[in-house]
Structure formats: structure tokens, C-alpha cells
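Action item from last meeting closed. Structure (388 res):
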């Protein structure tokens, strides 16, 4: 689960990481009030969406009077901001964060990620702040410093100092960097985060270190014990297809193609996506309906798949062990009737109660296409796609 910049900053500040003074605003007027409360004569207005790359997309604006704040706020609020991370749909901006502007002397990249290979938290840093880490690793891989943290010992002060030194910080800044690293590490570890990113971490003209941007992601499987973090969830920032499915206990991942998929088992689902690709098609989603799926659950899965307007064909692929093909077939038939399905549907059933399942489909009189094998099902789904 991701959270907003202002939320991440509040958390990190609680762990001793210095952040600029700022406030949240839901309207242009409120942004103006906040600016007056903050004081000073230069502010940065920032769109709060779950995405980086806001700067180049008009989501970060420097303002020096109330009128500029109002104009900038109106250009962001209620708009879908498209950055290079959001995809073409963009993300809706409903809140703003306004901060005192910082005078930047240098920008540093600092990230903490969970390195699954070493099963450790890894600190990633670079002198080339402001660039996204993907860009950095593509364009300036040599600038990236890595530091692996032993979970038993935690982040050691000498490690933090060494990293700060490699980033070219002077002796007065070493202590500050050490504090920031320790704070970010503790926030990560104590709150079951999977990512903390401070990009840029800036050195100001006066030599201070400040987290100018902050991003945190949390382990979904740990949210049950992090109620304060769970409350920060903003569903408006999530893929509505995924939220719908997740609320119904379905394992769904949205993709960009046009063949909607209902499959049992994550492994079979992955194999089916591969088979669709091999047949020249593009899957619209990954969806595992799980074991022992009732007809109602299959109907819900259909609804989840059909929420995606790109879907032109639905492919149902069930290899029933714990599942029952007759229940799945009933679900398919009820989806046809209740959802007024007009899209082509290809169904491949195998395993438990397969004969009963095939009978239900045959006797329904509905235009459901069937297939014997996974390969045949994928080919058929691609073949019946409407030609553009
Ligand atoms: P992102 O584009 O979504 O990652 O948003 P950031 O918060 O990282 O801001 C993008 C860029 O805007 C930063 O890399 C800075 O160069 C610039 N920026 C952000 N805040 C300030 C500020 O207070 N003062 C100045 N001068 N530039 C800022
Ligand atoms: Mn940033």
C-alpha cells in the first residue's frame, strides 16, 4: 500500500528526519491560508497523488504570492495528473500540500528497499538526486551506492557515516545524514514498510539537510497489525479494478490487454497469460478465483473482469481439483444471464465434475465457446477478438 507524500513526511518527521514546514489543503483558498500560517514569501505547492514525476507534469509549482497559489491550486485540484509513472489515465488530485520553499544547493537520492534476494533492507543512494531511480540505474549506474543492513545488528553508525562520506558530505553534515538514515531505517523497520524513498534529499544553501520529497510503501500482509498506517489508505489513488476485486477477496492484477481472464490457481493463471501471449493476444488481467469457488464467487469474478472496459473476450480456464466444474459452469451461466453478457466467452474446464460442468454449459443454450485444452482455449480467445 502506498501513501501520500505529506503522510510519509509526517511519519518520517516523527522519526527525526527534517522536513520543510507544510500543511495540507483541499481548496485554493485553504492553500492560501496555509501559506500565511507557514509564513515566508516563497512556497511550493505540490499535488498529492500516488506517483513521482510530478515536477515535470505540472504537479509541483513554486509560488510567491496568494494569487499564484490560487492559480496553481486550481490547475491541480480535481484534475487527473498524468506523469510518466501513472499511465495514460493519470491520477486524480484531490489534495494539495504546501510547504515553505527550500533553497537547494544539492540534490541527493536516498532510498530504502526490501532486497528479497539477500532478505535484507538495502539502502540505495546517489549524488544524482531528483532523477528517478529507474533513470539513474539506466543512465548513471556507477553513481548508485548500495548498503545492505544486517537485520540482527541494524543500521550501524559507521555504515551511515561511510555512506554520507561517499555522497560527498562535509563533516558538519555527516551527523545530520546519520540521523536521517537512522530515522528512515527505523520508520521502515518499525512500520513494516517495503520502501522508503527521499528524492530529493537536499542540502540547502545554509548547509542543512532536508527531505524535500518522501514516499513510503507498506507490506499489505502486515497492515492488519498497523492500523494507524491502514487508515492512510486512499482508494482514489488505486486501480479501481484492483480495489473492487480485493474487497471481494479475489487475487486480481490489472493489465493492459483485451482478453479478460478467470482462472483458478496462480500458477495456472500465469501459464494462461503466457499462452495468450504465445497465441498473439494480450491479457487484460491476472485473476485467481481460488479453490472451491461457488457459482456466486464466479459471478463476482466476472464482474471484476468486466469492470475493465478494454475487455473484448473473456477466457475461463479451470483445472478443478478442489474446485468443481459444475459450480464454475453455473457461475458462467448466471454471469451471462445476470450481466447481459454480449462479449464472446471461451470456457475450458477440466478435472472434478467436468462432465456435469460441460452439460450445464451445453444445456444453457448460451453462445459459450468451449475448448479442451489450455492451448486451444487461448487460440480461440485470440481468434474471436473483434478485428480493428
Ligand atoms: P516529484 O517530481 O513527484 O518527484 O516531486 P518532488 O517533490 O521530488 O519535486 C520535484 C522537483 O521540484 C525537485 O527535484 C526539486 O528540484 C523541485 N522542488 C521541490 N520542492 C522545491 C523547493 O522547495 N524549492 C526548490 N527550489 N525546488 C523544489
Ligand atoms: Mn521526487
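Sequence:
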Amino acid at each position: 500500500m502506498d501513501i501520500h507524500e505529506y503522510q510519509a513526511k509526517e511519519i518520517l518527521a516523527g522519526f527525526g528526519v527534517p522536513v520543510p514546514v507544510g500543511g495540507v489543503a483541499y481548496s485554493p483558498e485553504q492553500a492560501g491560508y496555509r501559506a500565511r500560517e507557514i509564513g515566508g514569501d516563497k512556497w511550493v505547492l505540490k499535488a498529492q497523488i500516488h506517483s513521482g514525476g510530478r515536477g515535470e507534469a505540472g504537479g509541483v509549482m513554486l509560488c510567491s504570492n496568494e494569487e499564484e497559489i490560487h492559480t496553481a491550486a486550481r490547475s491541480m485540484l480535481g484534475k487527473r495528473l498524468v506523469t510518466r509513472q501513472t499511465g495514460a489515465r493519470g491520477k486524480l488530485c484531490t489534495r494539495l500540500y504546501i510547504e515553505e520553499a527550500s533553497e537547494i544547493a544539492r540534490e541527493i537520492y536516498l532510498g530504502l528497499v526490501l532486497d528479497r534476494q539477500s532478505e535484507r533492507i538495502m539502502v540505495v543512494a546517489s549524488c544524482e538526486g531528483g532523477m528517478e531511480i529507474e533513470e539513474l540505474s539506466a543512465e548513471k549506474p556507477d553513481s548508485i551506492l548500495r548498503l545492505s543492513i544486517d537485520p540482527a545488528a541494524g543500521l550501524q553508525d559507521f555504515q551511515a557515516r561511510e555512506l554520507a562520506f561517499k555522497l560527498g558530505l562535509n563533516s558538519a553534515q555527516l551527523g545530520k545524514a546519520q540521523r536521517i538514515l537512522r530515522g528512515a531505517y527505523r520508520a521502515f523497520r518499525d512500520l513494516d514498510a517495503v520502501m522508503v524513498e527521499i528524492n530529493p534529499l537536499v542540502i540547502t544553501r545554509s548547509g542543512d539537510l532536508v527531505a524535500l520529497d518522501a514516499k513510503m510503501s507498506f507490506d499489505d500482509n502486515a497492515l492488519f497489525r498497523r492500523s494507524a498506517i491502514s487508515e492512510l489508505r486512499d482508494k482514489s489513488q488505486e486501480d479501481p479494478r484492483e480495489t473492487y476485486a480485493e474487497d471481494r477477496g479475489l487475487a486480481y492484477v490489472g493489465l493492459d490487454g483485451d482478453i479478460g481472464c478467470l482462472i483458478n490457481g496462480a500458477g495456472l493463471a500465469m501459464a494462461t497469460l503466457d499462452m495468450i501471449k504465445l497465441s498473439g493476444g494480450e491479457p487484460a488481467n491476472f485473476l485467481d478465483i481460488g479453490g472451491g469457488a461457488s457459482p456466486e464467487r464466479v459471478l463476482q469474478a466476472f464482474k471484476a473482469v468486466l469492470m475493465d472496459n478494454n475487455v473484448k473476450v473473456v477466457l475461463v480456464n479451470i483445472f478443478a481439483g478442489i474446485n468443481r466444474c459444475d459450480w464454475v459452469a453455473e457461475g458462467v451461466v448466471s454471469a451471462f444471464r445476470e450481466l447481459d453478457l454480449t462479449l464472446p466467452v471461451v470456457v475450458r474446464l477440466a478435472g472434478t465434475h467436468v462432465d456435469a460442468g460441460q452439460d450445464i454449459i451445453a444445456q444453457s443454450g448460451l453462445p459459450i465457446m468451449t475448448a479442451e485444452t489450455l492451448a486451444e482455449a487461448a487460440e480461440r480467445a485470440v481468434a474471436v477478438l473483434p478485428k480493428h
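Note appended to the action item: DSSP finds 13 helices and 18 strands in the chain.
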